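In the lab's daily routine, each protein ends up as an entry in a very long ledger. A line of letters takes care of the sequence, but it says nothing directly about the fold. The fold becomes a row of whole numbers, each drawn from a learned catalogue of backbone shapes. The protein below has been through that process, and both of its lines are reproduced in full:
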Amino acid sequence: MVLGALIGACIAGDDVVKGLSQLTGGIAPVALVAFTIAMLPTNAMNLYCGALSTLTIGQTFAPRWSPRAMARTIVVIALALAALLLSVLGKDSFLVNYTNSSVAVVCLVPWTPSTWWTTTGATREYDVASFMRQDGGLYGRVNVAALVCYVFGILIQVPFMSTRCTPARRHRLHGADLSG
């Protein structure tokens, strides 16, 4: 991240690879290969977690289904191809697409406090058995307090978002997004 910030501060224009090449001279190809290799474990973990989440969603709709190796392989390949396709199609407007997708984080941030505030007892421990009960056990089928906290947490962030829909605030904050 430090290298990226330095490159961004030192180069003119939007071509980061060209800027890296100018700053590092002859070792730019080595640096790019190193960055590519360094990204592989992170991308593999993202693909693994995405596959697990996708398979879990599938099992929600088909509880008796137990995905075997072929199903897992198909899901991983489909997710990798979808990511590749989105990358290729969005390459010309990466920063706009990245900024727009980061708005989803606004929905994730309030999740932790909304679940924390609605747990029971002074020790803030979950009643895990209640999660497995058809009627929701201690929490019920819908935890209204948690949903209210969650929606409030999202709404309170809206004035601090930097999107195309908030041009006046974006100008005053020089594009900074303070929502997350």
Notes: The longest helix spans residues 28-61. The chain has a mean pLDDT of 78.
